[in-house]
From TrEMBL:
<keyword id="KW-0663">Pyridoxal phosphate</keyword>
<feature type="domain" description="L-seryl-tRNA selenium transferase N-terminal">
    <location>
        <begin position="14"/>
        <end position="53"/>
    </location>
</feature>
<keyword id="KW-0963">Cytoplasm</keyword>
<dbReference type="InterPro" id="IPR015424">
    <property type="entry name" value="PyrdxlP-dep_Trfase"/>
</dbReference>
<dbReference type="Pfam" id="PF03841">
    <property type="entry name" value="SelA"/>
</dbReference>
<dbReference type="InterPro" id="IPR025862">
    <property type="entry name" value="SelA_trans_N_dom"/>
</dbReference>
<dbReference type="Pfam" id="PF12390">
    <property type="entry name" value="Se-cys_synth_N"/>
</dbReference>
<keyword id="KW-0711">Selenium</keyword>
<comment type="function">
    <text>Converts seryl-tRNA(Sec) to selenocysteinyl-tRNA(Sec) required for selenoprotein biosynthesis.</text>
</comment>
<keyword id="KW-0808">Transferase</keyword>
<protein>
    <recommendedName>
        <fullName>L-seryl-tRNA(Sec) selenium transferase</fullName>
        <ecNumber>2.9.1.1</ecNumber>
    </recommendedName>
</protein>
<dbReference type="InterPro" id="IPR004534">
    <property type="entry name" value="SelA_trans"/>
</dbReference>
<comment type="similarity">
    <text>Belongs to the SelA family.</text>
</comment>
<dbReference type="InterPro" id="IPR015421">
    <property type="entry name" value="PyrdxlP-dep_Trfase_major"/>
</dbReference>
<keyword id="KW-0648">Protein biosynthesis</keyword>
<comment type="pathway">
    <text>Aminoacyl-tRNA biosynthesis; selenocysteinyl-tRNA(Sec) biosynthesis; selenocysteinyl-tRNA(Sec) from L-seryl-tRNA(Sec) (bacterial route): step 1/1.</text>
</comment>
<dbReference type="InterPro" id="IPR018319">
    <property type="entry name" value="SelA-like"/>
</dbReference>
Length: 467
């Protein structure tokens, strides 16, 4: 076909529609071509030209080469922005679900670079040369840290709960308090997960009050029950006229009636958070010691590791989960397994500040304030007016709900339209920065900044303000 296209079947003059090669050669697409590749860019150009033909057939004007190129560039930029990239978290939410929850520190990055860039001894015993147990180090470390007899890692906590119920209670009743039939992020609900596992839900108590007697009556009425399921109320709190059985008492009832006490703990705290003023997140060890036969939890929440789920508890019950056909479908991938090993190694060595989540939670308020003051001073030296402010952050990730996390940060004031412009520049800039925008100001909570992010954050703020 020549430089111009012929008339369309509807009589519209399509001869002015640019050729594909001429659009691809436009200077407007030079950088996009490097970032997206010729093949993908060509597909975008062809799509834009198809849209142009439809517009011309509808009576619209014929676009120039540059018109099409600019449209393609805009579409390509929107596509590229959907790709995951590094973000400076200045929201004050430590476990920000939209930002991947727990950030992974230098130890994990080094482990990924050295162990996962090539081949990895993920499922081989190098001492014997024979096939080894996948995740052996991570599971042994979880046993050591939790006091459990055995452990199994899978790809997230929802998978852990699904596998636990399917392997240990499929086809049989499982008793759950109505006050614990929670919904987690994305609309996933405990009753739906239970139904998918094959377990039969037996609801007891009321929304606000469930007593030991309620569980006992339910077990009397369902002699074939497999278990009681205890679900941690991690992402909400019940206050006021409420009642919930003490953990050990519930375990005693379960074992007296010869049923299992299974627990969806959620957050996965390995260390006691009480000294930090965070009382709403029980540790995995405390659940094991209280009598739960099997405990499931996330590895990417308070534990501070990569996305994953863990099942810990009695050796025979964990073995049953491991043998279930669903276990292979839900197993943890190579890269998150290497990252989890590095995280757990830091726990074993007592190097808690190497875990960014714990470092953020443990940082003294005085140190947080001093950091905010240094950033505010540097902004002032670069001509940007800001103020140091006291803030209240959050643990996030469905952990320690309603428990404030005291913090400090810096605040910028701007007019309404300017405020939105600055916030957008921060989000789409390099590096991307996600602050809090409220009450006519932009807040940068420094508790959630990682090591080495002060200078990049300062530069990003200056660039966003000065345009």
């Amino acid at each position: 076909m020549g430089e111009e296209e012929t008339r369309g079947t509807g009589g519209a003059d399509l001869r002015g529609i640019p050729r594909v090669d001429r659009v691809l050669a436009s200077p407007s697409l030079t950088q996009v071509k490097q970032r997206l590749g010729v093949a993908a860019l060509t597909r975008l150009v062809r799509r834009a030209l198809d849209e142009a033909r439809d517009a011309v057939r509808g009576g619209g004007p014929c676009p120039s080469v540059e018109d099409v190129a600019l449209r393609v560039a805009a579409h390509a930029e929107r596509t590229l922005r959907t790709r995951a990239r590094r973000v400076i978290n200045a929201t004050g939410v430590v476990l920000h679900t939209n930002l991947g929850r727990a950030p992974l520190g230098a130890r994990v990055a080094e482990a990924l670079a050295s162990s996962a860039a090539g081949y990895t001894s993920i499922e081989i015993d190098l001492a014997t040369g024979r096939r080894g147990r996948r995740g052996a180090f991570a599971e042994d470390a979880l046993c050591e840290l939790s006091g459990a007899e055995a452990a199994l890692v899978v790809n997230n906590n929802a998978a852990a709960v699904l596998l636990m119920l399917g392997a240990l209670a499929a086809g049989r009743p499982v008793v759950v308090s109505r006050g614990e039939l929670v919904e987690i992020g994305g609309g996933f609900r405990v009753p739906e997960v239970m139904a998918r596992s094959g377990a039969r839900l037996v609801e007891v108590g009321t929304t606000n009050k469930t007593r030991i007697a309620d569980y006992a009556r339910a077990l009397d009425a369902a002699p074939d029950a497999a278990a009681i399921l205890r679900v941690h109320q991690g992402n909400f709190r019940q206050v006021g006229f409420v009642e919930r059985p003490e953990h050990r008492a519930l375990a005693a009832l379960a074992h007296e009636r010869k049923v299992l006490l299974l627990e969806d703990l959620g957050g996965g705290a390995i260390v006691d958070l009480e000294p930090l003023g965070l009382s709403g997140e029980p540790s995995v060890r405390s659940s094991v010691e209280a009598g739960s036969d099997v405990v499931c939890f996330s590895t990417d929440k308070v534990l501070g590791g990569p996305q994953g789920g863990a099942i810990v508890g009695r050796a025979d019950l964990v073995a049953a989960c491991r043998k279930d056909p669903l276990a292979r479908a839900l197993r943890l991938g190579r890269l998150p397994l290497v990252a989890l090993e590095a995280t757990l190694a830091a726990y074993l060595e007592g190097d808690l500040d190497a875990i960014p989540t714990l470092a953020a939670l443990r940082a003294p308020l005085s140190a947080v304030r001093a950091r905010a003051e240094r950033i505010q001073g540097e902004l002032a030296r670069q001509g940007v007016t800001s103020s140091v402010v006291e803030l209240g952050g959050a643990v996030g990730g469905g952990a320690c709900a309603e428990e404030p996390l005291p913090s400090f940060g810096v605040a910028l004031e701007a007019a309404g339209g300017e405020l939105a412009t600055i916030a957008e520049r921060l989000r789409v800039g390099e590096p991307s920065v996600l602050p809090r925008v409220q009450e006519g100001r932009i807040f940068f909570d420094v508790r959630t900044l990682l090591d080495g992010e002060d200078a990049p954050l300062t530069a990003a703020i200056v660039n966003a303000v000065k345009g």
